[in-house]
Design goal:
alpha/beta; Nucleoside Triphosphate Pyrophosphohydrolase; 5-stranded mixed sheet; 12 strands
Amino acid sequence: MTRTDHYHDPNAPQANSLKVAVSALVQDEQGRVLMIHRTDNDKYSIPGGGQEIGETVAAAVVREVQEETGIDVEVTGILGVFSDPDHVISYDDGEVRQEFSICFYARPVGGEPRTSSESKAVRWVAPEDLSSLDVHPSIQLRIQQGMRDKKQPYFT
């Protein structure tokens, strides 16, 4: 399914759903950030996705990172809650979702990088090289906040 992110776009369609999503800023011992090249919007992103019924948000983070990247992680903290109503995501099935994502810090504990149906590339990227990637502004915000202040969770 394809998606289009509308970010502070006055012509964006009206949201018709809200779903809990999770994402993770995963950094290795060298400080590199785990990034995926998404198949649905062709942009680079930190891994993440929707919480499923019967799981905690922490379990959702662990599952989503593993599914999209092959990397096993341990959740170490909360980066923030991103719920900007001016960021909506439209899908080709007619759903238009208002952003609601809880972003966590996580550290790798195992696994090997591999792609999935949601990621056509998986890379460890040095922070100074992130600007060379096509990253959506809402994901850039998560990364910037996560690198800036690890003591206070960010929220909108």
